[in-house]
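New to this. Please check this fold:
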Amino acid sequence: MRTLDRGVRSSRWRGWGKGGLIVAVMGGWVVFLSWLCLRVATGPRLGGLPALPAYRLELSGDAEPHRPRSSAESLVTGEMLTVLLRPVEAVTGPVAVKAFVEQGGYRRAWAVHFERSEAGAFILRAPVRSLPSLKPGRWRLSFLIGRPWALPPGPAAAHRLDPGDDWYLLEGELEITAT
């Protein structure tokens, strides 16, 4: 009877051993395929996304609409401000932008909404007086633009890092005078 009992236990464990091995192998495949899908969806190397093209910053106001745009601008509070972040060629894949303003050595995030074009350009067009944080004075505007997973937390960190192919730091000056 003792031998029979061992034989029953033995065959039970053998069944679990084969079933457990199958479950372990299937679980390993699920984990590997999940990791691979995540890398393809978020990483440029395995996802096949090309390098991000260079971007240009253009600031302009409505006072002189026909003059060339630049990365330095003087405006009065009643004018429209246009901020254009334009890629040198069309962009494929996800791109994000973070905006910051600085005055007197104090830098903070700038909560503004950019519209994105199909080509990957970002544009902000609004009256100066309606933009948060902008009062008369001289301002430094900083924009981090790039793949969402690669953007540094802010301009200070960006100055310490090499941009690589996944993000750029664009900066410009803006002087606002009261009307």
